[in-house]
Design a protein that fits this description.
Layout: H1 21-46, H2 49-55, H3 59-65, H4 69-98, H5 103-118, H6 121-136, H7 143-169, H8 172-180, H9 185-200, H10 202-215, H11 231-239, H12 247-279
Helix pairs in contact: 4-5, 4-7, 4-10, 5-7, 6-7, 7-9, 7-10, 8-9, 10-12, 11-12
């Protein structure tokens, strides 16, 4: 009778030893870091830093447009806020119409949402600048009003769908409890459903505000005076100068990031806070 003896773990040859899952994960992580460093070094060595400094970070070009940036920055925020106010008001009405028991209201909301989600915002802005005055015989002198209406109409279609999801996420028990206390349907909607729905959709609503900020780059199509220039218009005009290369575009991009990055942080904070409340 033959017997086989199991060697002690410490006496196994190196080729037969198995790594623990923790050790494999650490080695895999280190390999990823090493690969990332190699790629970054290769990209850094391939870049012509002298041309980058001349064409992308030209200090003379930055100094030339810097005095115009505060006004353009403020105009961009103004167009965003005005467009969001119109979009939020109209989007709330559309969300309620979308959930109405009246079929005609539902179909009007569906047609509106599908239409404005299906066409580029560029066409809507051009229409407000040129087609609407011809069709209705009206002249809107304020660029801010035209920008608010054009951007707000497009944004309302997306906000309506976001709000509708929030309204449907409110537990039915909340509505039944309010109705059992004698509250009317309208009062239940105003004081119970809509406030909770807004709290639920705050994170995605912040994302919509970020998208709206970037859409203000289309406002220049309405025809702007110098005092009404937005950030994109400043960058486009500066590109025509003989020096600086693409420096104006990089500078304008940095200005947009100053607006959108805090909004992104706010969205993540609200998402985290809303998630914590829903867990409790």
């Amino acid at each position: 009778m033959t017997t086989t003896s199991t060697p002690a773990p410490g006496t196994l040859p190196a080729s037969r030893r198995r790594w623990s899952p923790r050790r494999r994960a650490r080695v895999f992580r280190l390999a990823q870091y090493a690969l990332l460093v190699v790629v970054l070094v290769a990209v850094a060595l391939a870049i012509d830093w002298e041309n980058v400094g001349t064409n992308f970070f030209n200090t003379d070009a930055i100094a030339a447009i810097a005095p115009q940036l505060p006004r353009a920055f403020l105009n961009t925020i103004t167009y965003t806020a005005a467009g969001f106010a119109v979009g939020l008001s109209l989007g709330t009405a559309l969300a309620l119409m979308r959930m109405s028991s009246v079929a005609l209201y539902r179909w009007i909301a569906i047609v509106y949402i599908e239409f404005f989600r299906g066409i580029p915002a560029l066409l809507v802005v051009i229409s407000f600048g040129y087609a609407v005055p011809i069709a209705f015989g009206v002249n809107i002198p304020s660029v801010t009003t035209k920008a608010a209406l054009a951007l707000g109409l497009v944004s309302a279609a997306y906000i309506a769908e976001t709000l509708r999801a929030g309204l449907q996420a409110v537990p039915k028990g909340q509505v039944e409890a309010a109705r059992s206390l004698g509250m009317s349907h309208g009062r239940t909607l105003r004081q119970v459903v809509v406030p909770q729905a807004f709290r639920i959709v705050l994170p995605p609503m912040t994302n919509e505000l970020i998208l709206l900020t970037k859409d203000t780059s289309l406002v220049f199509l309405l025809g702007l005076a110098v005092s009404q220039y937005d950030l994109t218009k400043i960058g486009r005009d500066a590109l025509n100068s003989a020096q600086g290369g693409l420096t104006p575009l990089f500078l304008i991009g940095a200005c947009y990031l100053l607006i959108t990055l805090p909004l992104g942080q706010l969205a993540r904070y609200l998402e985290k806070r809303t998630g914590a409340r829903s867990r409790t």
